[in-house]
Write a structure and sequence with these properties.
It is built from 6 helices and 7 strands; from the N terminus they run H-H-H-E-H-E-H-E-E-E-H-E-E. It is α+β, with helices and mostly antiparallel strands. The strands form 3 sheets. Strands 4-5-7 form a 3-stranded antiparallel sheet, covered by helices on one side. The protein has a two-stranded parallel ribbon with strand order 1-2. Strands 3-6 form a two-stranded antiparallel sheet. It is globular and about 50 Å long. The protein has a single domain, classed as TIM Barrel (Alpha-Beta Barrel). The longest helix has about 35 residues. Its EC number is 3.2.1.35. Belongs to the glycosyl hydrolase 56 family. It catalyses: Random hydrolysis of (1->4)-linkages between N-acetyl-beta-D-glucosamine and D-glucuronate residues in hyaluronate.
């Protein structure tokens, strides 16, 4: 039904300069495989729509989400559900994720302290990991001229740094990933991801193995 409706809106997609699907999770989907499927299919439909106009490039996709589950202000998304939202979006080729919330979500000291603890313990380290992984994959596989995108959208392959060989450090108010990917990790990217070139650039999935420690800011 959604695809049929979107197919009738070509006039809109031809004039759009970006797409903004939302992937807000209800608490009933907490830590459920259905959460990944929900996000996967919403983002993949945006990917399909972005490719419908006949352009030499696809418009960027920015996925809207929030750190809290829907319809309540207490429970933050678990790390598994950050993978199900942010991780899915990155692996499918989204240009970014917009995480937001309303003032009613954090309208007292306890709520603000809870958010601060969540950001430090769970959210920020994961975002730093998946962001650095996407940057590294772009560099080693797509010549920094495109983003890594799943070959099979319905797989469960993600852009994550291997915690055995990478450390996420905090320095100067920002997060930095430091490490060197293994041959096995790089080969997994080659096997499971391809390249979507940035507008105005050409690229091809061709692995360039780094030989020095990577510092990804």
């Amino acid at each position: 039904m959604t695809q049929k409706q979107n197919n009738k809106l070509m006039w809109l997609w031809e004039r759009s300069t970006a797409l903004f699907p939302s992937v807000y999770l209800h608490k009933s989907l907490k830590n459920s495989p259905k959460a990944a499927l929900f996000v996967r299919n919403r983002v993949q439909e945006a990917v399909r729509v972005a490719a419908m106009p006949k352009r030499p490039y696809t418009v960027p996709i920015y996925v809207f989400s929030r750190p809290l589950y829907r319809d309540q202000t207490k429970a933050f998304e678990t790390q598994m559900d950050l993978v199900n939202t942010v991780g899915e979006s990155a692996a499918l080729g989204a240009s970014g994720v917009v995480m937001w919330g309303g003032t009613k979500d954090y309208n007292n000291k306890a709520a603000c302290q809870s958010l601060s603890e969540y950001l430090s313990s769970t959210f920020n380290p994961y975002i730093a990991n998946v962001t650095a992984a996407a940057m590294l994959c772009s560099n080693v596989l797509c010549q920094s001229h495109g983003r890594c995108v799943r070959k099979n959208y319905n797989s469960s392959e993600y852009l994550h740094l291997n915690p055995t060989y990478f450390s996420i450090l905090r320095a100067g108010g920002r997060y930095i990933a430091v490490g060197l990917p293994t041959a096995s990790d790089l080969n997994a990217w080659v096997e499971n991801f391809t390249c979507q070139c940035y507008a105005g650039w050409s690229c091809a999935p061709e692995l360039k193995r780094p030989t020095r420690i990577q510092v990804i800011k």
